[in-house]
Amino acid sequence: MRTINQINFTCACLGAVALWLSSLVVASPVQGSELWTACAKVDITPERPIFLQGQTCTRIHTKVDSPLLATLLAIETRENGEYKDGAIFISFDFCFLTEEFMTRFRQAIAEAIPEFECDKLIVSVTHSHTSYCLLNDEYLTDRTDVMSPAESIEFITSKVVPAAADCWRNKQQSQFSFALGDAVVARCRRAVYEGGRALMYGETNAHDFRSLEAMEDHDVGLIYFWDNNNRLLAIVINVACPAQTVESLATVNADYWHEVRLLIEERYGSDVVLLPVCGAAGDMSPHLLYNKAAESRMRSLRGSSEMRDIAMRIVRAVDENIKPAEKDRQASVILIHKCHKIDVPQAIIEKDVYDQAVASAEHFRAEMENADDRGASGSYVLYRWQKAIIDRYNAQQETEHPCFRVPIHVLRISGLVICTNPFELYCDYGIEIKARSLATQTLISQLTDLDNVGGYLPTSRSIASGSYGSTPASFKVGPDGGRLLVEETLRMIEEVFREREE
């Protein structure tokens, strides 16, 4: 495993390497390998009531607004009929992954596909807040008809793992191309006020409002896959925005990705698989902080909705770029997949934060016990948040430099790379990775391949400004870990471009 000291790179050195490698890649075309793919979509809509993840209060779904899906892409390269490298990429309509889910899911994949290297499995989520809770004891209810997180995990695993096995064993020769579009989907959700204070979803018509905290990423990263008869098989769509337009509903809903799927089906057929990938968007949201009245008026005049408008913008990027992408279809590609795990420092809980957490935990515990419905009150989840701070403080007393082990995937497909992290990664980090990457085009996949740590990964600027997402209860890894994540990701991108097929 790589340690912190092994991944200290200077910007100057990396820039020099980047220039050299970029010229080498352009000047020295490399023979690729045959591309083989298979894709599938699996309906994982619950058959019984479930807890909905993503808010402080207990929500149990009352109806299904739109189906929840898992979408799968199996990809590999072959030379003379022999396997070279590959991956199984799965995107779920979930809020986030948990250790419980990933442990069980990996185990099932290993049993169903023993010939597959499980470190080549990439699992990500759209960050829908109207989908399964996969975290044991996160919410409370006295109802006996509600699926527990453990039952939900078994249900989902039983549906998706057989489809993954079928994809891995039934790939066909394929072609691929990639493209870059743009669409306004996410907006920075952190308002900054006089004096530097920030507030998530803060009012922007306040007299002391000054700015939004961070830049936004409006890239739409696109990967198209065709069979050898030029029939479109799948589209990977990467946007730096969580699926949060209907985040407070008590319904099952795939959010704006459902609307995107409907439009893709209308244009390209129901057999085309859409694999959504959420980019670095820890401080982003589809919700507006200003121009609310103007946007509402225009939606009313168009007879549209927030989800429909977002979907139209995304699919417009798909439509505008598919014809240019067809000009560069590749059946022979360079595919290199690396997965490293690095140790990043745990954010330290200071004594004053611990003392406040002790007081807050007791307050929420008492409030929870006195509520008519302990779960619906929200006090239970707030108590758990404060208890987590207390537990972290106590644990850090036992080691001098507490760390977390973090998985990072970098998947190169010719001039494109997809790089992953398990966090709700603040947008600035994603922009830096893209800007410094050696690849022609770089896609970021956050909330991916969780091992034992996730949550927000904020910037120094946002921590200084405060508010949700940037307070100790919100994150386990801070800006020091963010720097290591960025540098190791860039080092791995350099590695996959340095490596050459024999």
Written overview of the protein:
With 502 residues, the chain is an alpha+beta fold. Helices cover 34% and strands 25% of the residues. The protein has eleven helices and 20 strands. It has helices at residues 11-27, 99-112, 149-169, 256-268, 292-302, 306-326, 351-370, 379-396, 427-436, 460-465, 479-498, and strands spanning 33-43, 69-79, 82-92, 121-125, 172-182, 187-188, 190-193, 198-200, 209-212, 219-227, 232-239, 273-278, 284-285, 332-333, 335-345, 403-413, 416-420, 424-425, 441-445, 456-457. Strands 1, 2, 3, 4, 5, 10, 11, 12 and 14 form a nine-stranded mixed beta sheet that branches. It has a four-stranded mixed beta sheet with strand order 15-16-17-19, covered by helices on one side. A three-stranded antiparallel beta sheet has the order 8-7-9, with no helix packed on it. Helix 4 (256-268) links the parallel strand 11 (232-239) and strand 12 (273-278). Helix 9 (427-436) packs parallel to helix 11 (479-498). The model is unreliable at 1-29 (pLDDT under 50).
Keywords:
9-stranded mixed β-sheet; 25% strand; disordered N terminus; 4-stranded mixed β-sheet; globular; alpha+beta; 502 residues
State Rg: 23 Å
DSSP summary, beta strand count:
20
By DSSP (H or I, 4+ residues per run), the number of helices equals: 11
Helix content: 25-40%
Question: What low-confidence regions span 5 or more consecutive residues with pLDDT below 50?
Answer: 1-29
Let me know the largest β-sheet: 9 strands, mixed
Shape: globular
Which class do the helix and strand fractions yield? alpha+beta
How widely separated are the two ends? Answer: 26 Å
What share of the residues does DSSP label as strand, in percent?
A: 15-25%
Mean pLDDT: 93
